[in-house]
Amino acid sequence: MRTPLTALLVLVASVAAGAERVAIGPGKFESVLPPGPGITSMEVRRFLLDRKPVTNAQFLEFVRAHAEWRRDRAPQLLADSQYLAHWRGPLDLGPAAGSSQPVTHVSWFAAKAYCEAQGARLPTWYEWEYAAAASETSPDARRDPAWRQRILDWYARPSTAGLADVGAPPANYYGVFDLHGLVWEWVLDYNALLVSNDSREQGGADRAKFCGEGALSAKDRENYAVLMRIAFLSSLEANYTTANLGFRCATEAK
User: Fold this and answer.
1) pTM as predicted
2) Using an 8 Å Cβ cutoff, are 245 and 106 in contact?
């Protein structure tokens, strides 16, 4: 496990170099969704993760370079009718989409295409969960009642207010911002998060079951905030967009 001093030195070096991604892992942790019976911990390989969610300004540059992802050109098979709906125009952010705010109203297909254009990919669920378990001072704060309550308080706030700029709260242990408290985030394998005790149900699972009996198969029933996120992601289709769903990118560590 990386020591606090080592993590601090890595963060300082990354910031000094202007790095947009930081190295996380390798490490073992107990996921709320263990991959199989009798498996109590997950091994996460070292990977690089964006320090902040992708912003409107960054996504605008992507759309300018990849015109097929303009909101007036992207097919609804890949992005629904609300794709980039908060922008004033196909290439104009306007007052409702601040340049430093996280981009939302973006489908999984669009987020995946953006990351691929950066030579990256979306993080997997286990990578995201591993990084998001960290508080400002601990690599795994999931047993910290105060930290968990702070996340739950975010879920309880009305979503009518405008989004804050990325990077406003302090970074976590790894130097990553806004994994909680700003937007939900796409992950690469979002559609594989439902689990079942009957292997015959895999691939044909009823997503509505997750909020009821499906949730009972999760290991950490007390980690309500993470279970809420899994339930939300599991309810989506790849072309869906919402006003509070963004993303960030990851890469394999060299």
Assistant:
1) 0.83
2) yes
